[in-house]
Design a protein that fits this description.
single chain, Alpha-Beta Plaits, 4 helices, globular, alpha+beta, six-stranded antiparallel sheet, 10 strands, 27% helix, two-stranded antiparallel ribbon
Length: 160
């Protein structure tokens, strides 16, 4: 059964724009999946560990027949192919791919929490998400546009 999944993309090392543009192409090539929408690129300040370069962020919508865990495995493989290292929480990165939503799936396991537990707090997720799916419901919080309106103090700028 085909499901709509939303993927958050972020990067701040080694030409982040190029990493995101390449990642869009790679997402379109995932098995049993097709890329149905992609946002503009957005610039944002780092969260958590702030002594690092600004991020470039985006969101992609996939139509996929992959199970959530299989999709997550594919996303981790793409991160590794881009040289992603997980040295510490919120560290600088060449590519970060977060599974934000997978249909209306709700789960919390050691490897995967759906919906993404902090997406409703982050303009760098909500700006590109609201761009491609403004009426998309974020369970327990409202639609993407409404949730974004509640956190307007965070700097996030469309760049491409």
């Amino acid at each position: 059964m085909t499901v709509s999944a939303f993927i958050g993309l972020g990067a701040n090392l080694d030409d982040p724009r190029a990493h995101l543009l390449r990642a869009f192409d790679e997402l379109a090539q995932l098995p049993q999946s097709s890329l149905s929408a992609r946002s503009s690129l957005w610039r944002s300040a780092p969260v958590g560990y702030v002594d690092q370069p600004e991020f470039v962020n985006a969101v992609a919508r996939l139509e996929t027949d992959l199970a959530p865990e299989a999709l997550l495995g594919q996303l981790r493989g793409l991160e590794l192919a881009h040289g992603r290292e997980r040295s510490f929480a919120n560290a600088p990165r060449t590519l970060d791919l977060d599974l934000l939503l997978y249909g209306d799936e709700s789960r919390a396991t050691v490897k995967l929490t759906l919906p993404h537990p902090r997406m409703h707090e982050r303009a760098f997720v909500l700006e590109p998400l609201a761009e491609i799916a403004p009426e998309l419901s974020i369970p327990g919080h409202g639609n993407a546009r409404e949730v974004l309106n509640g956190i307007r103090g965070q700097a996030c700028e469309r760049i491409a």
